[in-house]
Design brief:
The chain starts with a helix and ends with a helix. It is mostly helical and 218 residues long. Strands 1-2 form a two-stranded antiparallel sheet. Strands 3-4 form a two-stranded antiparallel sheet. Helices cover 65% and strands 6% of the residues. The protein has 2 domains: 97 residues, EF-hand (Recoverin, domain 1), CATH 1.10.238.10; 75 residues, Recoverin, domain 1 (Orthogonal Bundle), CATH 1.10.238.10. It is built from 12 helices and 4 strands; from the N terminus they run αααααβααβααβααβα. It is found in: Cell membrane; Cytoplasm; Peroxisome.
Length: 218
């Protein structure tokens, strides 16, 4: 539900909330499966899928998940993605299940690109774990860096009004008819203007990572 408070605070908060909510849902889909520890270790050593995951010990050091949590995540990931990687179409299909009342295609595209850190057109188990680790257990700074990267669509180090508008429209398309009160057609653009009034400190028409983090922390 969208509230008047969200309108006064700016839609950047909505974007971060939706990121975390959707990622929690993704964790639920890929993780909540019971299995024995030895079986998963054997599978990770013997797997013949196209993409071989890094050792659990290395992923444990690179993320904020325990070895057992990584085992749970891997079993679910492998069940859903036998090839060892998720392509964008699969990612969109997963998100469509979470938001059936709207069109999540565009937002899933942006989120996929944020998880696909090496920009090779696929999200591996390692990509998934590292992104999820930040979203669920990262510091405020880490989460805001991740969110900025999502909003910075062309990855040039700046958020423009056009980029933010694309994200806002994608969020509202995804949420569909579940917003109350029903939003006006120009609501995304109004939220972008509010966003820039608060964050574009030097009024140069773009928001830098420093401006973004400073404003959000306040």
């Amino acid at each position: 539900m969208l509230t008047l408070e969200w309108e006064s605070e700016g839609l950047q908060t909505v974007g971060i909330v939706v990121i975390i909510f959707a990622s929690l849902k993704l964790l639920h889909l890929l993780g909540l499966i019971d299995f024995s520890e030895d079986t998963v270790e054997d599978e990770m050593e013997m797997a013949t899928v196209r993409h071989r995951p890094e050792a659990l010990e290395l992923l444990e050091a690179q993320s904020k998940f325990t070895k057992k949590e990584l085992q749970i995540l891997y079993r679910g990931f492998k069940n859903e993605c036998p090839s060892g990687v998720v392509n964008e179409d699969t990612f969109k299909e997963i998100y469509s299940q979470f938001f059936p009342q709207g069109d999540s295609t565009t937002y899933a595209h942006f989120l996929f690109n944020a998880f696909d850190t090496d920009h090779n057109g696929s999200v591996s188990f390692e990509d998934f774990v590292k992104g999820l680790s930040i979203l669920l257990r990262g510091t405020v700074q880490e989460k805001l860096n991740w969110a900025f990267n999502l909003y910075d669509i062309n990855k040039d180090g700046y958020i423009t009004k056009e980029e933010m508008l694309d994200i806002m429209k994608a969020i509202y398309d995804m949420m569909g008819k579940c917003t109350y009160p029903v939003l006006k057609e120009d609501a995304p653009r109004q939220h972008v203007e509010t966003f820039f009034q608060k964050m574009d400190k030097n009024k140069d028409g773009v928001v830098t990572i420093d401006e973004f983090i400073e404003s959000c922390q306040k």
